[in-house]
Recover the amino acids of this structure.
């Protein structure tokens, strides 16, 4: 036997083993299942992946060591349901066995939130936030975990994405969503449970790209508005492009709720947003098969929007609160009229957390919203404005209440005198004898001074539905 023949004979069993391993090592998991992840507590969570058709897959979570078996279907897919315990134990492991074995380590059980939107959600401490020099070194929270979704687009819903879970440290926090981090920290400090934060956001993008394109196509008005979006160099504008690549692969990973900070890119057609945002919320809830809470941030005032486009978008967001189980954070007092990216991200995150702590987690002593317009009543030459979320009362910061305008049937608004009267505001102007409508802080750039006693600002609003010129 030649030397070469001898070597081939010797290596054949080894080569065969490699071939078998390559063919049979088929169990795979999506990227969202990785070491250091957080799973939603007290829930039935779905774990899914891929394997060789007909391959038996066994999933064993260490919190109960109960094996759950399933076979991959004819599309090479499998999924199982796991019942998670209450937060407080762990860290756990999850073993996934087929022809090969995957072990996910350092798994925590707690509260999982999805963060999405455009640049103000994506904004990091590295990009520049207030008190970054103090906050970054303090960001050592082993029970807070981050998952960052990389920018991708796709023409159809994808099965997986790139990313991994990481533990919150100064090194990881500095490049994660600042709003998301401060939200998560507030939840952790108040609930004392692990918090998982998934950030899937992209600066400068319109809401249309974050929805299933079929949702847009099924609505004539939304489809027409989407067709008017102009191409930009910094990101996609076509419906569904980010949804397909950055949201769909996360479904049905169990989440407690969603946070949304977006709208600046939709100011070109602001009144459409009152339909667009509710449609996005319904779309996500339908895809997840869950009526999870959806808390969003009203865009901050900025002087360089086209006339009235910024305030019209803010008002469209306010009107989106008609969707059940939603909440809106007003940031007009902590924005920057000269900067579309206000650097106070701490209070934004805290205010989002207050919505969640009160409405989702039952902390009823926490005031979570500033005054929101509810109703009006004409009283002779005056109009009385009624609000929700007044806390222990309305207050003004300054000697006089400002920002109110009033109009008669001619639809011409003039500056009004406004006074707090109990839990209401009474508005009037000498030149308007027969008032029919009121607007508040109706400008792209504002400096509000109407608050509740908890120090939260009132949202801009209008009582009319007249066409804005």
């Amino acid at each position: 036997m030649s030397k070469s023949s001898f070597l081939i004979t010797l290596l054949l069993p080894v080569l065969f083993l490699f071939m078998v391993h390559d063919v049979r090592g088929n169990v795979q998991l999506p990227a969202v299942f990785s070491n250091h992840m957080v799973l939603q507590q007290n829930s039935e969570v779905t774990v899914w992946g891929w394997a060789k058709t007909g391959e038996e897959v066994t999933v064993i979570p260490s919190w109960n060591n109960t094996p759950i078996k399933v076979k991959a279907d004819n599309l090479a897919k499998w999924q199982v349901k796991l019942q998670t315990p209450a937060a407080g134990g762990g860290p756990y492991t999850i073993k996934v066995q087929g022809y090969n074995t995957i072990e996910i380590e350092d798994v925590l059980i707690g509260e999982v939130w999805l963060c999405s939107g455009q640049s103000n959600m994506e904004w990091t401490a590295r990009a520049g936030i207030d008190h970054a020099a103090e906050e970054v070194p303090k960001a050592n929270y082993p029970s807070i975990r981050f998952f960052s979704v990389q920018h991708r687009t796709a023409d159809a819903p994808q099965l997986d994405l790139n990313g991994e879970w990481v533990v919150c440290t100064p090194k990881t926090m500095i490049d994660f969503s600042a709003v998301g981090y401060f939200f998560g920290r507030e939840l952790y400090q108040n609930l004392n449970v692990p918090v998982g934060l998934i950030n899937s956001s992209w600066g400068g993008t319109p809401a249309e790209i974050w929805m299933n394109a079929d949702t847009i196509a099924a609505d004539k008005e939304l489809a027409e508005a989407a067709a008017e979006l102009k191409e930009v160099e910094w990101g996609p504008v076509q419906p569904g492009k980010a949804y397909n690549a950055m949201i769909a692969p996360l479904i049905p990973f169990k989440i407690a709720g969603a946070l949304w900070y977006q709208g600046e890119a939709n100011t070109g057609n602001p009144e459409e947003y009152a339909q667009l945002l509710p449609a996005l919320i319904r779309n996500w809830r339908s895809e997840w098969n869950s009526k999870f809470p959806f808390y969003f941030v009203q865009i901050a005032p900025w002087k360089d929007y086209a006339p009235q486009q910024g305030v019209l978008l803010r008002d469209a967001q306010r009107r989106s609160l008609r969707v059940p189980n939603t909440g809106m954070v007003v940031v007009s007092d902590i924005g920057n009229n000269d900067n579309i990216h206000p650097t106070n991200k701490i209070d934004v995150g805290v205010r989002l957390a207050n919505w969640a702590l009160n409405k989702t987690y039952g902390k009823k002593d926490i005031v979570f919203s500033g005054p929101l317009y509810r109703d009006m009543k004409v009283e002779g030459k005056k109009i009385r404005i009624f609000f929700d979320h007044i806390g222990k009362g309305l207050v003004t910061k300054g000697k006089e209440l400002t920002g109110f305008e009033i109009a008669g049937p001619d639809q011409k608004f003039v500056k009004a005198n406004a006074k707090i009267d109990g839990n209401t505001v009474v508005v009037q102007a000498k030149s308007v004898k027969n008032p029919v409508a009121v607007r508040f802080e109706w400008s792209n750039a504002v400096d509000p001074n109407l608050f509740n006693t908890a120090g939260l600002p009132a949202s801009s609003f209008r009582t009319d539905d007249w066409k804005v010129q």
In short: The chain has a mean pLDDT of 94. The longest strand covers residues 101-117. The CA atoms of residues 17 and 107 lie 33 Å apart. Residues 38-108 form a domain with the Immunoglobulin-like fold (CATH 2.60.40.10).
